[in-house]
UniProtKB/TrEMBL annotation:
Protein family: Belongs to the ferrochelatase family.
Organism: Brumimicrobium salinarum
Keyword 4Fe-4S among record annotations: no
Function: Catalyzes the ferrous insertion into protoporphyrin IX.
Its EC number(s): 4.98.1.1
GO cellular component: cytoplasm
Pfam families associated with the record: Ferrochelatase (PF00762)
Entry keywords, A to Z: Cytoplasm, Heme biosynthesis, Iron, Lyase, Metal-binding, Porphyrin biosynthesis
Source domain of life: Bacteria
Enzyme class per UniProt: lyase
GO BP, one annotated term: heme biosynthetic process
Catalyzed chemical reaction(s): heme b + 2 H(+) = protoporphyrin IX + Fe(2+); Fe-coproporphyrin III + 2 H(+) = coproporphyrin III + Fe(2+)
Main location: cytoplasm
Name under which the protein is recorded: Ferrochelatase
Length: 346
């Protein structure tokens, strides 16, 4: 009797992206690719081009390059996002190397290198039976998960022979993801902080409003529950993550604040993290413990924006310390999360 052939699976871990270096030219190239994505800035083509290439990049590239240089310096001369994504890939591969499954793990960036085009071409040549598209964003948003899956499917759709495809849409409430963040918190004495903040990457209001065929995000109970209508709403998912974290950390709702960072203008999800930090300092708070659960690898938004800028602003107003809780990065419990999500799709 002929032995059944073992199926081969390729896993593609996708992160947002990073400049190739903190030089002005490389940062400009990265921002041009990132901000011209219609899922990131969802304006009509000409309006988006005028805004991004005529206003945002020319006026922000010098300052952005300076901030990326600070990030590189904080991280030993490398992009931490790239470093930790490579580490996750290696550690996840080691998990499957110890099993009978024929699984190969790849990684790519949605913007810049390693590009999705080059990595998926390598995967095409491997002739996998199945490809699992795995964006590394816990919470579903069109500007992150949506654009990563869209590009992967667009590339694969041009292949003459198309394998079976599976996707990971979110993992905001996965127990191992929550556990990894709780484990990170054990590095700190949580009782020694006046305030606790869960700071998530912001989104324009119109991005979450587009989730709903009728009505707005504000019409839904996103702060308190996940239901059939809001289950793919970024705002509902981040609040669900916060509730799960608070439960494991033994926090009451009055013990913490949910806020949103990295906004481009005022029509974004509120409250704004920097304004909350400012308010707390003026109220006399001295020590803040800040989580940033939307990021599973430390990056500019965690190490610089929270760890440096918020801390400096807080101190200037009389506070003592804004302490960043590190991202899940390559914590073993987070690799458990990745492994479990892949196994569910084998």
């Amino acid at each position: 009797m002929e032995q059944k052939r073992k199926k081969r699976t390729g896993v593609l871990l996708i992160q947002l992206g990073t400049p190739d270096s903190p030089t002005k030219s490389d940062v400009k190239t990265y921002l041009n690719e990132f901000l011209n994505d219609p899922r990131v800035i969802d304006y009509p083509y000409l309006k988006r081009k005028l805004l991004v290439n005529g206003i945002i990049i020319p006026f922000r590239v010098k300052e952005s390059a300076k901030i990326y240089k600070e990030l590189w310096d904080l991280s030993g001369g490398v992009s931490p996002l790239l470093k930790y994504t490579e580490s996750k890939t290696k550690l996840l591969q080691e998990r499957f190397d110890k099993t009978e499954e024929d699984v190969t793990v790849h990684m790519a960036m949605r913007y810049r290198k390693p590009s999705m085009e080059s990595v998926l071409e390598e995967m095409r040549k491997e002739n996998y039976d199945k490809i699992i598209i795995f964006p590394l964003f816990p919470h579903h948003a069109s500007a992150t998960t949506g654009t990563a899956i869209e590009k992967a499917v667009k590339i694969i759709s041009k292949w003459w022979v198309m394998p079976e495809i599976s996707t990971v849409n979110d993992f905001y409430d996965h127990e191992a993801y929550i556990d990894a963040m709780v484990e990170r918190t054990k590095e700190f004495d949580i009782s020694s902080y006046d305030r606790i903040m869960f700071s998530y990457h912001g989104l324009p209001d119109q991005h979450v409003d587009k989730v709903y065929d009728d009505g707005l995000c504000t019409d839904q109970p996103c702060e308190t529950e996940i239901n059939q209508k809001n289950k793919l709403c970024y705002k509902a998912q981040v609040y669900a993550t916060t509730r799960a974290l608070a439960d494991k950390l033994g926090l009451k709702e009055s013990d913490y604040t949910v806020a949103f960072q990295s906004r481009l203008d005022k029509n974004w999800l509120e409250p704004f993290s920097d304004k909350v930090i400012e308010k707390w300092a003026k109220e006399g708070a001295k020590r803040v413990l800040a989580f940033s659960p939307a990021f599973v690898a430390d990056c500019l938004e965690t190490l610089v924006e929270i760890g440096v800028e918020y801390d400096e602003d807080f101190r200037a107003l009389g506070g003592e310390k804004v302490q960043l809780v590190p991202s899940t990065n390559d914590h073993p419990r987070f690799i458990d999360c990745l492994e479990d999500l892949v196994r569910e799709r084998l």
